[in-house]
From TrEMBL:
Organism the protein comes from: Exiguobacterium indicum
Record-level Gene Ontology MF annotations: hydrolase activity; metal ion binding; RNA endonuclease activity
UniProt: Mg(2+) binding residues: D8
Name of the protein described by the UniProt record: CRISPR-associated endoribonuclease Cas2
Co-factor requirement: Mg(2+)
Quaternary structure, from the entry: Homodimer, forms a heterotetramer with a Cas1 homodimer.
PANTHER family cross-referenced by the UniProt entry: CRISPR-ASSOCIATED ENDORIBONUCLEASE CAS2 (PTHR34405:SF1)
Name of the gene: cas2
Listed GO biological process terms: defense response to virus; maintenance of CRISPR repeat elements
Enzyme Commission number(s): 3.1.-.-
Pfam family, one: CRISPR_Cas2
Keyword line: Antiviral defense, Endonuclease, Hydrolase, Magnesium, Metal-binding, Nuclease
Similarity comment: Belongs to the CRISPR-associated endoribonuclease Cas2 protein family.
InterPro entries: CRISPR_associated_Cas2 (IPR021127), Virulence_VapD/CRISPR_Cas2 (IPR019199)
Amino acid sequence: MKVIAVYDMDAKRGREVRKICSRYLNPVQRSVFEGELTERQYKELRDALRKYIREEDQLVFYIVRNPKWLRRDYLGIPVIDFWW
């Protein structure tokens, strides 16, 4: 499945979250990651990140099970295409 992770949090915790996300997903921007994960990898990622998320933070996962329903459009510097 395709996974996009987006987070907004304190810089210190954000660094830890970035390290963990980098183990599973490809960086797109400072707090945006994307990639292909199995259900097991997705669960591992969520479990690893859970201890860094506080009430004032936000971490959102967008999950696309069928790639034909995902279209990426961007302005500015192109992002290297990790999926296609």
